[in-house]
Structures are given as structure tokens and as C-alpha cells.
């Protein structure tokens, strides 16, 4: 007998179909993507429904779980403007709201959409060339000058510059009217977002429903990205250009997408501080000196790109970038001034401009728009105000519409009168648009399908073969059944767009053909900012491990209360004191202020301190706080970390989260610390076995080695005294994970000199200070040098000095002062590395042009 859901009978399929469609009622007066006017399912949806109905409800939920886990495990997220909580880079991140039901469109219908979007991209690109070039459209009266100059996105310094408004990537937000025709709701030319999210939607649903992609012949997306990348390469003057994706940084709403695209396309993710102008060219600050940037795909607004000639308050751009554009030494995609054609004020003029510039009628009309900067149009809008949607004519035009378009009829009388007065006083800031009734598409809700309004974002890329349109895009779906506009905010979902083909779809990959591959063994340029974050990621992870080992050692001694060992209380006290000194746990006074003193619930101070050191994010040295810092640091270099590595941060945070008001037992705290150490060991294994031994791995390893060496020195200073009891030395061996090695070498209990030699000077013990120094010597030696005079740079000089100290020291002569010297030398190596390789070094070394490529 066949398993339920594997080979269901026709009757079972029909029953499931009836459940899915039960109560599905298209909204009156709107087009529905699933159900036609005759009340029947549209033909392109039939294969989809057939595949869904072959799955039992349990199997369907399981498939949804696969897609949701992909979103969760890969960290697909976005941020709504205003979500940021202080400077916590992970606060305010929202999981990507994936809808499990795609939008299905036939290939024949998509051909019309693609032709219309490509035509519109071509028109806007041609118009930009005219605006920043001869200005014939304004001179001939086809375009009012104030539609251009009234926009904050018109950048006067780019006038006459080659490629000042060059359009490389374009996006159109489309809506389908009641008659089934697609309309352009808005143009996106400034820095269009969403291509990465469209790709993630596709990956998530393809994981959930792999068979559907084969049986329904869904068009692939890789060819679009291949063409986009080829277009950027062709725009450069070098055969193998260095292409940078310029991001506003991790606080940006779509930062995840930017890191994802940089990794997927092989581009260098940079922030404004990573770039610098030298001799009329843009360079990337790297650990090997300044490296030329040939192409910059910007994701920042154009007026923020150059504080020297554009927005003086910007901290996101590069001083002198406009001059580099004028000289043609760098290609910017999209051009810095390209945002000027995003203005809604322009939409009413595009039909006439299309006939003039292209000699063609627009395949996809835009929603009817009247710019109130013209007397006749303003009067028409005011006469029909209750029938209009009123929107800002330009980005950041203000005028009380900062939240976007409003339907005038929905406003209270006082607000509607105030809006009318503002339009009468300064009409150029407003447009009136026809109120759009969006079409609906199905979503899965409460076990069946329901219609919800949606908009469709479609992308076009300027490739060497002309404009190429992504065969898909992404759909934004409102949870409100009467929504008339949809944006990525609370209550909105995103779905994949499936364009079907009548024939099997050709498999396309981003990899070049074998005869065109240039073999290389180096990952590429490492910006100084990325090196800095990798270095500190290593240090935060090692600090977390040290704190966890302290907690585990402390709790192990509390649980094993050896009353025959008179030194046990002193060891517990010392371990707790280290936690307090490290800022991982409060002292006795702090415990009392937090209600965790010994009088509260009969909890011992040591257990309360261990609990705080594990869970309390308010204690800056706690394991929870350090994992948070590690994740924050990793979020800035997300494009350089694997999905498995990123998933481990989430696992650690979950393990180190305690329900408010609950006091775990000694055994529970011990077990959590032990599990967290195992998770950290998994990350160490990933970095050791999976990361290429390039500069990025070296800085991660250098950070870990320095922090481990410092922690070992501090442990030794606290426990390896001349009169140290064996229990304290046992604790030192536990903290440095050296118990097994010691016991295999010595048949006696812990003794001071053998313990000191093992944890401080033994080059064969991977936990010793000497071992860390040897590894640091190797890693620092292999880092690039800025000078070619044969002289040692500061980090190398210091590490050689420290290595000599380790190799010549004797355990019998080690005391607190000599151990402190080792610790201070390690801290000096850290400072020297920061001064030499990281961005705060803006002095003579940082500005040299040695090694420019």
C-alpha cells in the first residue's frame, strides 16, 4: 500500500484541492492571479496545485519548515527604517517574511513584462544621458527644467561628467489593474534593492519544492546575474577589474542582501572608510597597501557619495569621488546622479519622452500621474482631490508626506484641508495619481489559500548584449485585504516569482567556461576593515571560551565539594575573583544590588556569580556579552563567513539565554557552559578545516592566539604562586585544558614548576603561551609588508622578541613579574598589528602607494 501523500488517489487529491480553495473569494473589482473571471483556476496554476495536492497536510507543513529553516539558518533578514536599537547591529533585524506560495506567470505574459521593463530601462538611461549631457529635452520643452533641478537627486557637480547618470541596474514596481494589464507604479534607479532577496526566495522555495522546478520548467535566475556581472566588467578599462560593492554599512535596511550579493558575485564589499583617493584614482585600503578600485556598485544614495562636492555631512562616501568620475578613472553603477529619474514628478512626461527619444510607445504605461508644479495639472488634482492618491513629487520633498502616498479621501476633513492648502501653496512638491487597485495573489493561511493584494518588482541589468530582465523578481504581499500600496514593513510578505516555460529550461551557472578560467590560489584583496573585524572576532570568541572555562571550573568545584581539601574554598574564591576582575560577574555588592545575594533563595554568591558570568549580557565580560560582540563583529563581515559558522552564533546565543527571574542549579549552569564550549569547538573546527589559509584566516587566528596567550598569562598569575596548593594548580590545568597532558607526563600530583613549564613554555602544548607565540610568529611573518627596505616592521619585531623570551625562559625562574611581562608583550603585539594593518592608521604608512595594483 502506498504511503499517504506519496501516491494519493484522485479522490484524495480532489479533497485536498477543495480544502485549499475552500472560501477563496477574489475581491470585487480586482484581478486575481489564481482565479479567473469565470471562477476557474487559471491554467498556469494547475500544475502547481496538482503538485501541492500530492502532498499531505503534514508533508506540506514539513516542506514549509525546510524553506523557513533555510531563511533562519542563512540569516536572511532586513531592517525597517527606525528599527535600530542604539548601536547593536543585530537589534531590529527582522527575519525575511517568506510566503510559501509563489506568484506563477506564464512565459508568454512574462515576455511582454520583460519587453516593457527593458524598454523603460533603456528610456530612463537615455534620458539620464541627456539630462547630464546636452539637455535637449529641457531645451525643446518636453521636460520642465524644475522637474530636474527641483529634485534633490539632481547632482549639479556631475553635469557633463562621463557616466554621471549611467544606469546599470533598474527596477520597476508593477501592479496589475482590474483589466489585467500591468502598470508601472514606481521606478527605481538610485540604488535598486531586492535582487539578492529574489535569489534567496528562489533558493528557499527550491529547497522546499525541488520537483516542481523540474516539472513546471521554471526559468532560472543565474543568467541574469551573469549578464549583470559581465556588464560591470565591460564598463572597466582593465581586463580583470576590481569590482567593489559600496555599502552604507551594517545599519542599512538591506545590509544582509548586500553581503550576500558580494559573496555570490565575487565582489569586494567595502564601506566609504575603506576607500581613498590617490592621484585621481579610487583605491581600497588593504592590509597590503592601496589597491585600485575600477568599478563601484554603489548602494548608498548619490548625494552621500562624496562629502567634498556633494553632501558635506556624509560619513558614507569618499572625498574626491566626483572628481574621479569626471576623469573617467572609475565607473560607478548606478551613476551618482541617476536617482533624478526616480521622481514621481517625471512619470507624467515619460510617454512623450519615449516617443521622442525612442520613437516608440510605452509597452508598460505608468499609473496616471499629474505633477502639481503645472497650473492646469494642479487645478485638475485639486478638483478631483477625493479621487486621488497624493504623493511626494521628489524624494525627501517633505510637505507632510514623509510616510509616502496617501489617499485623500481617507484623510480626516482637517488633514485633507491642510493637504489642499499645501498643494495650493507649493504644488511642485506633490503629484496626484490615480488610486491603484492592486491585483491579488494567493497566500497559505490557516490551512487554505486566501487572496491578498500584491506588487511585483522586476529587475533589468545593462549587459554587453543590451538590457536583460531577470525572469522573476520578487512579489510583495500585504496581509491587509484592502491594501492599495505595499512596502517591506510589518504585515508584508515576500514571495518568489515563477516564470514558466513550455520547454525544459537550460541550466545556467555563474561559473565561466573552463577555457576562460584564470587559475588563482589567493582569495583576493582583504580590506583593512575586514581584517580588523576578523581579528576581533577571534579575540571575542577566545574571551568567550576563557569565561566558559572559568565558569565550568568554578561550578565543578562547587558541585564536588571536597571537604577533605582545605584549599578548595580558596580556589573557588580565586576563580570567582577572576570573573569579577574580568567584568564577567558582579562583586558581592553588585550581587546584592541585583537581588542575587546569599540571602535570596539560598543561592551561594559563587553560583550567582557563575550564573551572571554565563548569562548576563549587562556584564561586559560575560560569555553572553562576548558572544553578542562576536556576532555583531561577524555581521559586518558576513560575506566572509560560511552559513555553518553564522548558524553557530545563533546556537550560542540560544544556549546562553536564561528566562528572566529563574535561577538555574549548579549542575545546569555547568552543563550549559560545557555545551557552549563544544559549540565553540565546532567553530574552531570550521575555521581550521574549512577556511582557506589566506590573510582573512590569519587575522582570525592571530586574534585568537593573542587572546589565548593573554588569558593563559592571567590564569598563571592567579594560580602559579610559589606557595600554590595543588588544588589551585589543578584549576590552572583545567583552565588551560592541559590536565590530560600533565597526567600522561607526570605520575605525581600537580607541582608548580612542571605546571608552569606546560602552560607557559612548552612549544608542543597547543594551549601554552609558547605555542601561541610560535603560531603568531608564523602568521605575522606571512602577512604582507609595505616596505621593501629589508627592515622588520613593528609587529614582527615584537613577536620575535617575545619568541626569544619564551625560548630562553626557565620554569624555575618564572614569577608573577615575568609572566606579566609576557602578557604585556602580547598586548604590545596586538597594538602594533592594529597600528600597522587597521583603518585607524591614517599616517604616512597608511597613505603610501607601495603595492598599488
Assign the structural class, choosing from mainly alpha, mainly beta, alpha/beta, alpha+beta, or little secondary structure: alpha+beta
Quote the distance from N terminus to C terminus.
68 Å
The average pLDDT score comes to 87
The tally of beta strands, per DSSP, is 21
Q: What characteristic shape results from the CA principal axes?
A: globular
Classify the helix fraction into a percent range: 40-55%
| Percentage of β-strand residues | 5-15%
Largest sheet: 8 strands, mixed
Radius of gyration: 32 Å
Low-pLDDT runs of 5+ residues are 1-5, 511-515, 597-601, 841-853
Q: Treating each run of at least 4 consecutive H or I residues as one helix, how many helices?
A: 28
Domain Circularly permuted ATP-grasp type: 102-477
Domain DUF403: 526-838
Please specify the SSE layout and strand pairing.
Elements: H1 10-21, H2 46-53, H3 57-73, E1 77-78, E2 94-95, E3 103-105, H4 107-131, H5 136-139, H6 145-149, E4 169-176, E5 182-188, H7 195-208, H8 210-215, H9 222-234, E6 243-246, H10 255-265, E7 268-270, E8 275-278, E9 281-286, E10 289-292, E11 295-298, H11 321-327, E12 331-333, H12 350-357, E13 369-371, H13 375-383, E14 388-392, E15 406-407, H14 413-425, E16 430-434, E17 440-445, E18 448-463, E19 466-469, E20 474-478, E21 492-499, H15 528-559, H16 568-581, H17 588-593, H18 605-615, H19 623-636, H20 643-655, H21 666-690, H22 695-719, H23 726-735, H24 739-745, H25 752-761, H26 769-781, H27 794-808, H28 816-837
Parallel strand pairs: 3-21, 6-7, 6-11, 11-12
Antiparallel strand pairs: 1-2, 4-5, 4-18, 8-9, 9-10, 13-16, 14-15, 14-16, 17-18, 18-19, 18-20, 20-21
Helix pairs in contact: 1-2, 3-7, 15-16, 15-18, 15-19, 15-21, 15-22, 16-18, 18-21, 19-20, 20-21, 22-23, 22-26, 22-28, 26-27, 27-28
Amino acid at each position: 500500500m502506498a504511503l499517504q501523500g506519496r501516491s494519493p488517489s484522485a479522490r484524495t487529491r480532489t479533497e485536498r484541492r477543495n480544502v485549499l480553495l475552500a472560501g477563496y473569494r477574489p475581491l470585487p473589482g480586482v484581478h486575481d492571479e489564481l482565479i479567473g473571471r469565470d471562477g476557474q483556476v487559471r491554467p498556469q496554476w494547475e500544475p502547481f496545485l496538482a503538485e501541492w495536492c500530492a502532498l499531505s497536510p503534514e508533508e506540506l507543513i514539513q516542506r514549509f519548515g525546510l524553506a523557513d529553516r533555510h531563511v533562519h539558518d542563512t540569516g536572511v533578514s532586513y531592517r525597517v527604517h527606525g528599527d535600530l536599537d542604539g548601536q547593536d547591529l543585530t537589534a531590529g533585524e527582522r527575519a525575511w517574511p517568506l510566503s510559501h506560495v509563489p506568484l506563477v506567470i506564464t512565459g508568454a505574459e512574462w515576455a511582454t513584462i520583460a519587453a516593457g521593463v527593458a524598454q523603460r530601462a533603456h528610456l530612463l538611461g537615455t534620458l539620464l544621458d541627456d539630462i547630464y549631457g546636452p539637455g535637449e529635452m529641457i531645451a525643446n520643452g518636453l521636460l520642465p527644467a524644475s522637474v530636474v533641478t527641483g529634485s534633490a537627486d539632481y547632482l549639479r557637480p556631475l553635469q557633463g561628467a562621463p557616466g554621471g547618470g549611467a544606469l546599470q541596474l533598474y527596477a520597476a514596481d508593477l501592479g496589475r489593474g482590474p483589466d489585467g494589464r500591468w502598470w508601472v507604479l514606481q521606478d527605481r534607479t538610485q540604488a535598486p534593492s531586492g535582487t539578492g532577496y529574489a535569489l534567496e526566495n528562489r533558493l528557499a522555495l527550491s529547497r522546499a519544492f525541488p520537483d516542481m522546478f523540474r516539472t513546471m520548467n521554471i526559468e532560472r535566475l543565474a543568467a541574469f546575474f551573469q549578464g549583470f556581472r559581465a556588464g560591470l566588467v565591460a564598463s572597466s578599462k582593465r581586463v580583470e577589474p576590481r569590482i567593489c560593492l559600496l555599502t552604507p554599512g551594517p545599519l542599512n535596511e538591506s545590509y544582509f542582501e548586500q553581503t550576500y550579493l558580494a559573496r555570490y558575485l565575487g565582489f569586494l564589499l567595502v564601506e566609504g572608510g575603506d576607500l581613498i583617493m590617490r592621484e585621481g584614482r579610487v583605491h581600497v585600503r588593504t592590509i597590503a597597501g592601496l589597491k585600485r578600485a575600477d568599478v563601484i556598485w554603489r548602494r548608498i544614495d548619490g548625494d552621500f557619495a562624496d562629502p567634498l562636492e556633494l553632501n558635506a555631512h556624509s560619513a558614507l562616501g569618499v572625498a574626491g569621488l566626483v572628481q574621479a568620475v569626471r576623469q573617467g578613472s572609475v565607473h560607478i553603477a548606478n551613476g551618482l546622479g541617476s536617482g533624478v529619474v526616480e521622481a514621481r514628478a517625471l512619470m507624467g512626461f515619460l510617454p512623450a519622452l519615449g516617443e521622442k527619444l525612442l520613437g516608440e510607445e510605452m509597452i508598460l504605461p505608468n499609473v496616471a500621474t499629474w505633477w502639481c508644479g503645472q497650473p492646469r495639472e494642479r487645478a485638475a488634482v485639486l478638483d478631483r482631490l477625493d479621487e486621488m492618491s497624493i504623493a511626494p513629487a521628489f524624494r525627501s520633498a517633505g510637505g507632510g508626506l514623509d510616510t509616502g502616498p496617501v489617499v485623500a479621501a481617507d484623510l480626516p476633513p482637517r488633514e485633507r484641508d491642510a493637504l489642499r492648502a499645501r498643494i495650493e501653496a507649493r504644488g511642485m512638491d506633490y503629484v496626484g495619481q490615480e488610486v491603484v487597485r492592486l491585483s491579488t495573489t494567493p497566500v497559505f493561511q490557516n490551512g487554505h489559500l486566501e487572496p491578498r493584494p500584491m506588487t511585483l518588482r522586476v529587475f533589468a541589468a545593462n549587459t554587453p548584449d543590451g538590457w536583460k530582465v531577470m525572469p522573476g523578481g520578487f512579489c510583495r504581499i500585504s496581509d491587509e485585504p484592502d491594501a492599495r500600496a505595499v512596502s517591506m514593513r510589518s504585515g508584508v510578505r515576500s514571495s518568489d516569482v515563477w516564470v514558466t516555460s513550455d520547454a525544459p529550461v537550460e541550466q545556467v551557472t555563474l561559473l565561466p567556461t573552463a577555457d576562460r578560467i584564470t587559475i588563482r590560489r589567493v582569495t583576493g584583496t582583504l580590506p583593512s576593515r575586514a581584517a580588523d573585524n576578523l581579528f576581533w572576532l577571534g579575540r571575542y570568541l577566545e574571551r568567550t571560551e576563557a569565561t566558559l572555562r572559568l565558569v565550568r571550573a568554578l561550578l565543578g568545584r562547587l558541585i564536588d565539594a571536597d571537604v577533605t581539601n582545605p584549599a578548595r574554598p580558596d580556589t573557588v574564591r580565586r576563580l570567582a575573583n577572576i570573573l569579577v576582575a574580568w567584568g564577567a560577574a558582579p562583586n558581592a555588592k553588585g550581587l546584592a544590588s541585583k537581588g542575587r545575594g546569599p540571602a535570596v533563595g539560598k543561592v551561594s554568591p559563587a553560583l550567582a556569580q557563575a550564573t551572571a558570568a554565563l548569562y548576563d549580557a549587562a556584564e561586559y565580560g560575560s560569555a553572553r556579552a562576548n558572544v553578542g560582540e562576536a556576532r555583531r563583529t561577524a555581521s559586518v563581515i558576513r560575506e566572509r563567513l560560511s552559513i555553518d559558522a553564522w548558524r553557530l552564533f545563533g546556537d550560542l546565543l540560544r544556549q546562553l539565554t536564561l528566562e528572566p527571574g529563574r535561577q538555574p542549579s549548579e549542575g545546569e549552569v555547568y552543563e550549559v557552559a560545557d555545551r557552549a564550549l563544544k559549540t565553540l569547538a565546532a567553530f574552531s573546527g570550521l575555521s581550521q578545516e574549512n577556511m582557506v589559509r589566506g590573510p582573512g584566516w590569519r587575522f582570525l587566528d592571530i586574534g585568537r592566539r593573542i587572546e589565548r596567550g593573554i588569558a593563559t598569562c592571567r590564569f598563571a598569575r592567579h594560580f602559579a604562586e610559589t606557595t600554590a596548593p595543588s588544588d589551585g594548580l589543578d584549576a590552572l590545568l583545567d583552565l588551560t585544558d592541559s590536565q590530560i597532558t600533565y597526567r600522561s607526563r607526570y605520575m605525581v600530583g600537580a607541582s608548580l614548576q612542571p605546571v608552569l613549564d606546560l602552560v607557559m613554555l612548552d612549544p608542543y602544548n597547543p594551549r601554552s603561551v609558547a605555542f601561541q607565540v610560535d603560531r603568531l610568529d608564523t602568521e605575522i611573518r606571512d602577512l604582507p609588508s609595505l616596505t621593501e627596505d629589508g627592515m622588520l616592521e613593528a609587529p614582527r619585531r615584537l613577536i620575535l622578541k617575545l619568541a626569544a623570551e619564551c625560548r630562553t625562559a626557565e620554569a624555575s625562574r618564572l614569577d608573577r613579574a615575568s609572566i606579566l611581562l609576557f602578557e604585556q608583550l602580547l598586548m604590545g603585539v596586538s597594538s602594533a598589528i592594529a597600528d600597522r594593518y587597521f583603518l585607524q592608521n591614517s599616517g604616512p604608512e597608511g597613505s603610501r602607494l607601495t603595492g598599488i595594483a
